[in-house]
Amino acid sequence: MFERKKLQNLNDIFIERGKRVADCVYFCRVNQYSNGVQEFLETYFEESRKNGVILKSPIANPDGNNLAYYEEMMGLAYIHDWRFIADCLKKWLPRMNQYQRETVAMAIYDTLEEMREEGKNANILKNVYIKFMCWLYYRFERIVNHLGGAQIPKILSEGVISNHQMKLLQVLSYAGCDIVLVQYDGGAGYLKIDPGEKYSDVYMDTEGKPFPEGFDFKKLQQDISNREKMKQLYGVLPQVDNCTNAWLTGTDFADFLLAPYLRGTDERFFYNFFVRIEGVEEKAVYLNELYQFQLQLKTNKRRVVICSDVIEKPTVEEIASIRRGNYKDKEALIQGLLPNINYAHSMVLRGVMAKAFVNCILEEEKNSANLNQLRNKAVSLLCWLNRYQGSLFGSWKYPETPVSSI
Length: 406
Fold this sequence. Notes:
By secondary structure, the chain is α/β, with parallel strands linked by helices. About 50% of the residues lie in helices and about 10% in strands.
């Protein structure tokens, strides 16, 4: 049987069996929420959907039809011996191979033996055994025949579970499943059935906090769906992203004149700024400071675009140059307008422009009365991008940062 290890890093649970430090599985409880937990649960939810089982509510006890079918196929005999259980599994779950049958049989036997040592009588053991067999057939049949493979089956469960459900999960953990319990109550319900935390480990997040109101697997599934829609909107994401203002020291123009390679060294980012200057320290010399600042930018061969007062509205000709149509929703609008963004000199910068455009439209949707108004704003944005991109970027190369001033 497999050995349970404590999960130190959430992503370790996605490592293939053969690449783990030991031939181990993880059975952990997630009692708190964080951005990292959200990201992990989204990935684990998808892994469980493809190669495991998702339990969105406590497992219901076998109903009359389940029990009648079991009795018809297997009878009601029970012998407290793992070999008897293995023989029954061969008939009840015929897709399992010998290794899987014996592993599950020994795990069931060990769990029932613990119950026997706790004082449970033979009739209780038989009833729990039959419940386990029904649950394996109706809820876990899709994974028991994958036990022992390179890809370890995943089980994801939410909310408070029953004592017998916990014991079956213990069986599946012994037999080679990774298991994650999401405990919205902070874990208090679980501790009532496993006060010594014998069968699972709690994952502690340094940024953890209580789960948000209304968070559950339905909400998680919606978040995953929304994220997939966003991926489709963005297409191929750019290789670099912006690091805006985080690198500023607060020394005004000296910061702006700092060469890109002195702002930061992480190649995943280009280091830019977006600042608003209100008022001046010395009115008499301010215009001269601006003039000297502009000269220094030119000396540094920085591209500069200056717009006095406001950015002028798009012209009729600029608007006519934008290919557009009628759209049923914001997703169709974005996908329909994105081809208007062209920058042949660099696909990296084209990707940055496209991502920024999508972000702006998604944010602007909150302030738009209807889709037609949103389309007009998007068209204006594309007109301005076409108008200024040549002056700002030219034959852009990473990590150049032009300057626009209004």
